[in-house]
Design brief:
The complex is a heterodimer of chains A (331) and B (674).
Chain A (H helix, E strand, L loop, with lengths): L1 H31 L6 H22 L7 H22 L5 H19 L2 H4 L12 H40 L11 H10 L14 H11 L9 H34 L8 H19 L8 H24 L12
Chain B lengths: L3 E12 L3 H9 L16 E5 L11 E6 L3 E11 L4 E8 L12 E12 L4 E13 L3 H29 L8 H14 L28 H13 L2 H20 L6 H7 L13 H6 L9 H31 L6 H8 L5 E3 L4 H10 L3 E5 L2 E6 L2 H26 L1 E8 L3 E3 H4 L1 E2 L13 E11 L5 E11 L5 E7 L5 E3 L2 E18 L11 E4 L1 E2 L11 E6 L11 E6 L5 E4 L5 E5 L7 E3 L2 E18 L3 H18 L4 E8 L2 E8 L3 H14 L10
Antiparallel strand pairs in B: 1-7, 2-3, 3-4, 4-5, 5-6, 6-7, 8-28, 9-10, 10-27, 11-13, 11-26, 12-14, 14-15, 15-16, 17-18, 18-19, 18-26, 20-21, 21-22, 22-23, 23-24, 25-26, 27-28
Classes of the chains: A mainly alpha (331), B alpha+beta (674).
Chain lengths: 331, 674
C-alpha cells in the first residue's frame, strides 16, 4: 500500500512540524519575548495535511471527510489555514500561541489515539452518498475551527483583562475622576490648537504647521487600544465569522436530512447539540448588543461555548448514539 | 480659560393644569423619562442609580438616549414649597475629552409657579454651562430647543395624567389608560373631540376624555416592549438550550417500563432526585414535543417579532433620518467621541472623495456630509429574525397540516398512499389529487467488495386509479420519490420470505417448483446483535407433541444464508441463487432467493417551502449581518471640518480606517486676509 505509506509520512510530517513550532513559539514568547511567528511551520503542516487529504480523496474515490480521523485532520488543517490567513492580514504577536496548540492537539488526537482501523478509509455508508456531504461537513468543521479559535481568544481576553484591571487598580491613586476633565486640561489643549484660538484666520499658516495642527487636533481620538481590547475585538470578529458558517452548516445538514431521512429536523443528539451551540453563540451576540454587558460577560459565554463545541463535535459521538454515529466510534 | 464662555438660557411657558398636577412629574427626579422628549431621539430612559433614594438631595440619575449614550446628573436642591428643582451634570459623553462642542459645569433649575386665576402652571427651565466661545451660540440654541421639547413633553404627560387624577400623584399607566378608555367609551358619540389635545381639564370626575391611547393599545404596547426585552430573549435562548440538552441525556420516546427500569425511585434515584415519576411528570421522555417546550419556542418567536417591531425597525428609520448633522455638536453626538476630530483647513468634499474611494456611499449638502457603508450589517439582523419566524411558521404549518407514515412492503407488494399517510392533526388533508397506489417492483441491496452495504434501491411505480403507471423511479437513501406533494424515502429494509427448493420437505410442490417461506426478524432477541432474520424448512409434517425436524435458515444480509440442522449443528453456507444444493435432515435444499421488503417513509409536509425559504434567508442574512455598518458625519465650519463616525462591528479596524482617511485628506490653505 504505497498510498498508505505516503499518508503516514505526511501525517507525521505535519505533526512534527507543529510540535517543533510549538516549542519554538513558547521559547520565543517566554525567553525572548519576541513576537511569535510560525509562517513556515504552519505552512509545512498545512501543505502536508492538504496533500494527505487529497491523496485520500484520490485513493478512496469519495470526499475525504467521512470518518473521525479525516474530520480531525481537516480541523487541524483549518487551524493552520486560519493562522496563515490571519498572520498575513493582521499583525497579532500572540496568534501562534493559540493556533499551534489547537492544530497540534487535533492532529495528535487523530494520529495517536485513534486505532488504525478507524484511520483507514472505508466506503461511504448509503446515507453519506450525497453531494451534500461536501458542503455540510466542510462548513461545519470550518465553523468549529473558527468558533473554537474565537472562544480561546475570548478566554485569553479574560486572563489579560483580569491582569490589566489588577494593574489599573494599582495605578488608581489619582485624585480626580477621569470622566470629568478638569478645566485646566481642557483649556490647555484648546489653546494649543490654533483653529479654536480665533487668530488662525488672520495669520498665514504653512502646510507643515497645518499638518502639525491636524495631529494636535486628533487628541480627541481614543488612546491606542490595549491588548485586551484587541483580543476582545478579534474574538468577536472570528466568532462573527464562525456563527454564520455554523448556521449554514446546520441548515445545509437539515436540507440534506430532508432528502435522506425524510425530516429536516429529528432532534438527533448531534443535531440537538449543534442547535445548542448555535443558541449559545446567539446569546453571545445578543449580550454584545447591550453596552453595559460588554467585556467579560460575553467572554464568559464564549468560554461556555468552547466546552459546548467539544461536546457537540466529539462528546456526542463518544456516546455513540443517533443518526450521526457512522464512521466514528462504533461498538 | 479665556476661550471658554458662560452660556445661560431660560425657557418658560404655561401648562394648562394646576401645579399640583405638574409638580409630581417634575420632582420625580429618577423618572424624567416619563416626560422628557428629545429632538432626534426615539427613546428616552431614565433611572436613579442603584442605591439612590428618590427625592433625596444628592441622588444621582442616569438618562439614556436611544439606548445609545448616557448622561449622569445629580439632584442638588428640591423645594416642595416653592416648586424648585436644581440639578447638575456629572458626566456626559461629549465631555469625556475637551473639544468645542462640550458643555462644562452644566447646572439647571426647573421652577413651577401656581397661576391661581386660571388654574394653570407657569413653567421655567433655566440652564447654564461653559463652552468654547466659538460654539456658544450654536450650543445655546441647541439646548434651548431641547428645553422646549422637554416642555412640550411635559405638557403632553400632564395632559395624559391630569384627566385621570387631578392634584394627585400620576397613577400607573395602566390605570390611567383604563380611565381614559372608560371615558372614551362614554363619549363615543362625540367624535369631534381630538385624539390628542391638551384641552383644559374640567367636567366631571372622569376628566378630559378621549386622551391617550386605549387600554388594548396600552396593553399591546407594554406586551411588545416586554417581549422585546433583551434579557428576556437571552433567558429564552438559554432555557431552550438547557432543555434541549436534557433531551440528549434522557432517552426519548421509550416505553414507560424503560424509564421505570433505568430511573428507579426510592433510594437509587439517578443523581439523587431523578426518577421515572419526575420524568413522566415533566414530560422529559418526549421533551421536544412537550407543550411547554413548544410554548417556549412560540414565546421566542413572539420575542423575535416584537424585537423587530419595536427595536430593529425603528433603529433603521432613525438611521435614515439621521442623514445630515447640521451642527458640530450633532456630528459628535451621531458619530460618538471615539472617532471624532476637528480637522483644520480641510474641505468636506475632500473627505467625501476619500471616503468614496474606501467604498462609502457619500452624500454632501450645504457643507454637511453623511456617508455609510455596509447597510446590510444594519438590515441583516432584521432578516435573521424574519427568517427565523418563517422557519417557525413553516414548522408549525407542517406540524399541523402535514401527513406522515411508514410502511414495510415486500417486493411486488403495493399500497394506497391514503392508507399509510396519517394526518398529524385534524387540520391535515391529503391533497385530493395525490392519492395513488404505490407498487414496489423490486428491492435491491448493492454491496461493496468488502461486504459492506453500498446502497439500498427500491424500484417504485406510482399507479393511477385505473392502474395506469404515472411515474416510475428507482429510489435510494439520498434520492427520494416525489409525487404531488408526497415524498417517499428509502429508510429501512427487511426480509420478507425465502424462496427455496427442498426435495424431501412436505411443503415442496410435486411439480418441482420453488416455494416461499416467511422470514422473521430476530433483532432484539436475547443474545442477538444487529439485524438477523431466520426461517425454518420442515423435513416432516407437523405432528402434535414434539417439535418437527427440519433446517433452520439464518440470514444477516442478502448475500449468504447459513443452514443449521435439527440438532442445532451448523451445516453450511449458501449464496442465494447459486443453485448449489445442501443436505440437511434428509432434504436437499436449494436456496433460490431472499425476497426483500423495503421500508418506506412517506411524508406530505406543506410547511417545507416556508422552512426552506427561511433556511435560505437565514443563510444569507447571518452572513450579511457580518458586514459592519459604518457611518461618517462631517460638517464644514469655516475652514475647519468637524467629523466623526461609528461602526457597529469591527470597531478597531474602523477606527484605524477613519484615522487613515483623515490623514489622507488634502490640506486646503485657508484664505489669507492680508
Amino acid at each position: 500500500m504505497m498510498a498508505f505509506d505516503i499518508e503516514n509520512i505526511l501525517a507525521n510530517l505535519s505533526f512534527l512540524s507543529l510540535l517543533f513550532l510549538l516549542f519554538f513559539q513558547w521559547a520565543q514568547a517566554s525567553f525572548f519575548s519576541t513576537p511569535v511567528g510560525g509562517l513556515y511551520g504552519m505552512g509545512i503542516a498545512n501543505i502536508a495535511l492538504t496533500a494527505l487529504l487529497l491523496i485520500r480523496w484520490l485513493t478512496s474515490g469519495h470526499f475525504p471527510l467521512s470518518n473521525l480521523y479525516e474530520s480531525l485532520l481537516f480541523l487541524s488543517w483549518s487551524f493552520t489555514a486560519f493562522h496563515l490567513v490571519l498572520q498575513r492580514n493582521s499583525n497579532l504577536p500572540f496568534l501562534g500561541l493559540i493556533t499551534t496548540p489547537m492544530a497540534l492537539f487535533t492532529n495528535a488526537f487523530a494520529t495517536f489515539t485513534l486505532p488504525p482501523e478507524m484511520q483507514r478509509s472505508t466506503g461511504l455508508v448509503p446515507a453519506l452518498q450525497s453531494n451534500w456531504l461536501m458542503m455540510h461537513v466542510t462548513i461545519m468543521i470550518v465553523s468549529y475551527a473558527a468558533l473554537l479559535f474565537g472562544c480561546l481568544v475570548s478566554m485569553a481576553f479574560l486572563i489579560v483583562h483580569y491582569e490589566e484591571s489588577k494593574e489599573r487598580k494599582k495605578e488608581k491613586v489619582l485624585p480626580q475622576d477621569s470622566s470629568l476633565p478638569t478645566s485646566s486640561s481642557f483649556s490647555s489643549s484648546l489653546s494649543s490648537s490654533s483653529i479654536l484660538d480665533g487668530t488662525v484666520t488672520l495669520l498665514p499658516v504653512g502646510f507643515a504647521e497645518a499638518k502639525a495642527d491636524r495631529e494636535e487636533n486628533s487628541i480627541t481620538r481614543a488612546p491606542q487600544s490595549s491588548l485586551a481590547d484587541r483580543l476582545d475585538n478579534l474574538s468577536y470578529r472570528t466568532l462573527g465569522l464562525g456563527f454564520p458558517l455554523l448556521t449554514i452548516g446546520i441548515l445545509s445538514g437539515a436540507v440534506w436530512a430532508n432528502e435522506a431521512w425524510g425530516s429536516y429536523w429529528s432532534w438527533d443528539p448531534k443535531e440537538t447539540w449543534a442547535f445548542i451551540t448555535w443558541l449559545v453563540f446567539a446569546i453571545y451576540f445578543h449580550t454584545r448588543l447591550t453596552k453595559n454587558w460588554s467585556g467579560t460577560r460575553p467572554a464568559i459565554i464564549a468560554t461556555v461555548g468552547f466546552f459546548v463545541l467539544w461536546i457537540c463535535y466529539l462528546g456526542v459521538n463518544l456516546v455513540g448514539a443517533g443518526l450521526h454515529s457512522y464512521g466514528w466510534f462504533q461498538r | 480659560m479665556s476661550s471658554l464662555a458662560r452660556v445661560t438660557l431660560t425657557v418658560s411657558g404655561v401648562l394648562p393644569a394646576p401645579v399640583d398636577c405638574v409638580w409630581p412629574l417634575v420632582r420625580d427626579f429618577g423618572n424624567i423619562a416619563k416626560w422628557l422628549r428629545r429632538v432626534g431621539s426615539q427613546r428616552v430612559d431614565s433611572e436613579l442609580l442603584p442605591g439612590q433614594i428618590a427625592s433625596q438631595v444628592g441622588s444621582v440619575r442616569r438618562v439614556l438616549f436611544d439606548l445609545n449614550y448616557t448622561v449622569v446628573e445629580q439632584l442638588e436642591a428640591l423645594d416642595d414649597e416653592l416648586y424648585i428643582l436644581k440639578y447638575k451634570l456629572i458626566s456626559h459623553p461629549w465631555n469625556s475629552s475637551p473639544f468645542a462642542g462640550a458643555f462644562l459645569n452644566f447646572v439647571s433649575t426647573i421652577q413651577l409657579k401656581d397661576v391661581t386665576m386660571t388654574n394653570a402652571t407657569y413653567f421655567e427651565w433655566h440652564g447654564e454651562f461653559d463652552t468654547d466661545h466659538q460654539s456658544a451660540d450654536v450650543m445655546r440654541s441647541d439646548i434651548k430647543r431641547r428645553f422646549e421639547a422637554g416642555f412640550h413633553g411635559l405638557a403632553a404627560a400632564v395632559a395624559e395624567s391630569s384627566g385621570a387624577a387631578r392634584g394627585l400623584l400620576a397613577p400607573p399607566p395602566a390605570e390611567r389608560a383604563r380611565v381614559a378608555a372608560a371615558a372614551s367609551g362614554n363619549l363615543a358619540s362625540a367624535p369631534e373631540l381630538s385624539e390628542r389635545g391638551g384641552g383644559p381639564p374640567g367636567g366631571g370626575p372622569g376628566g378630559s376624555p378621549g386622551e391617550g391611547p386605549s387600554l388594548p393599545k396600552v396593553l399591546w404596547n407594554r406586551t411588545l416592549r416586554q417581549l422585546s426585552s433583551l434579557p428576556l430573549a437571552i433567558c429564552e435562548l438559554a432555557v431552550i438550550a438547557v432543555l434541549s440538552s436534557l433531551g440528549t441525556i434522557i432517552e426519548q420516546g421509550k416505553p414507560l417500563e424503560f424509564y421505570m427500569q433505568n430511573y428507579p425511585d426510592g433510594a437509587r434515584k439517578v443523581a439523587g432526585f431523578v426518577d421515572w415519576r419526575l420524568i413522566q411528570a415533566a414530560q422529559l421522555d418526549h421533551i421536544y414535543t412537550a407543550g411547554y417546550f413548544l410554548g417556549l419556542l412560540g414565546l421566542l418567536g413572539a420575542s423575535l417579532a416584537a424585537c423587530t417591531a419595536t427595536r430593529q425597525w425603528p433603529a433603521v428609520r432613525v438611521a435614515r433620518r439621521w442623514r445630515f448633522a447640521q451642527t458640530p455638536e450633532r456630528v459628535y453626538s451621531f458619530g460618538g467621541m471615539q472617532n471624532a476630530v476637528v480637522l483644520p483647513n480641510a474641505e468636506v468634499r475632500g473627505l467625501g472623495r476619500v471616503l468614496q474611494q474606501r467604498g462609502f456611499q457619500v452624500f454632501v449638502r450645504d457643507g454637511a456630509l453623511y456617508a455609510f457603508r455596509g447597510l446590510g450589517g444594519k438590515l441583516g439582523p432584521i432578516g435573521v429574525h424574519a427568517a427565523m419566524l418563517a422557519i417557525m411558521a413553516g414548522v408549525a404549518y407542517g406540524g399541523l397540516c402535514g401527513l406522515k407514515g411508514s410502511v414495510m412492503v415486500p417486493e411486488g407488494g403495493d399500497f394506497l398512499l391514503s392508507q399509510v399517510l396519517t394526518p398529524k392533526s385534524a387540520l391535515a388533508r391529503l391533497p385530493s389529487d395525490s392519492d395513488a397506489m404505490l407498487r414496489v417492483n423490486a428491492f435491491d441491496v448493492k454491496y461493496r467488495e468488502d461486504g459492506a452495504v453500498d446502497q439500498f434501491l427500491s424500484d417504485i411505480s406510482v399507479l393511477g386509479p385505473r392502474g395506469d403507471e404515472l411515474l416510475r423511479k428507482s429510489i435510494s437513501v439520498n434520492d427520494p420519490l416525489r409525487f404531488r406533494g408526497v415524498t417517499a424515502y428509502q429508510v429501512d429494509y427487511s426480509m420478507a420470505a425465502l424462496t427455496v427448493h427442498a426435495a424431501g420437505s412436505p411443503l415442496q410442490p410435486p411439480d418441482g417448483s420453488p416455494f416461499n417461506l416467511p422470514m422473521a426478524s430476530l433483532e432484539g432477541r436475547p443474545g442477538i446483535k444487529g439485524k438477523l432474520w431466520a426461517t425454518f424448512v420442515p423435513a416432516e409434517a407437523p405432528a402434535p407433541g414434539r417439535p418437527p425436524r427440519g433446517a433452520s435458515v439464518v440470514a444477516r444480509d442478502f448475500q449468504t444464508v447459513a443452514l443449521y440442522g435439527s440438532d442445532g449443528a451448523f451445516v453450511g453456507v449458501r449464496r442465494p441463487g447459486s443453485g448449489k444444493p445442501i443436505e440437511v435432515d434428509g432434504m436437499s435444499v436449494v436456496v433460490d432467493a431472499i425476497v426483500g421488503s423495503t421500508g418506506l417513509e412517506l411524508k406530505s409536509d406543506p410547511g417545507v417551502p416556508f422552512v426552506y425559504a427561511g433556511f435560505a434567508g437565514l443563510m444569507v442574512t447571518t452572513l450579511v449581518s457580518y458586514l459592519s455598518h459604518a457611518q461618517v458625519w462631517a460638517l464644514q465650519e469655516g475652514s475647519a471640518l468637524h467629523a466623526s463616525g461609528r461602526s457597529n462591528r469591527a470597531k478597531i479596524g474602523f477606527a484605524d480606517e477613519v484615522e487613515a482617511a483623515y490623514q489622507a485628506l488634502p490640506l486646503s490653505l485657508p484664505e489669507t486676509e492680508l
